[in-house]
Amino acid sequence: xxxxxxxxxxxxxxxxxxxxxxxxxxxxxxxxxxxxxxxxxxxxxxxxxxxxxxxxxxxxxxxxxxxxxxxxxxxxxxxxxxxxxxxxxxxxxxxxxxxxxxxxxxxxxxxxxxxxxxxxxxxxxxxxxxxxxxxxxxxxxxxxxxxxxxxxxxxxxxxxxxxxxxxxxxxxxxxxx
Length: 177
Prior knowledge:
By secondary structure, the protein is an alpha/beta fold. It has five helices and seven strands, in the order E-H-E-H-E-E-H-H-E-E-E-H. The longest helix has 27 residues, at 150-176.
């Protein structure tokens, strides 16, 4: 079964780790709990960096060590909402995934951030926000947000609106100088 988005994708170009974290922070402001954010991208594209931004935006203690759960498989962080940071890169099959009790995280009250989301069986969830990160030369990354389901369409619309407001403010500030 192939899942297709109900709404088109939207992409932005990030020129630094700080800007990638900032996109995570902006997304965090729109989250209410119970969301599934699927992260995909090659090694080193900034998936964990993006999660750091979400954690900052949700008020996770600045002293918390936000790290890739490559070997621990699941890291939990506590802020305004709980964050379940899951990495499926080393999970070798359905039995291993079931052993992690992923459904408890996916359908819990926190925000579920899943790195290597493409390894999650397609029947596990139909509604989610996919964030794909791709190298675009140097420190630049292209972040593509794709909504699957009405809840995530609303989040995507709000995120786009934040970008519009942000770029309008930047243009207004530049014009006043």
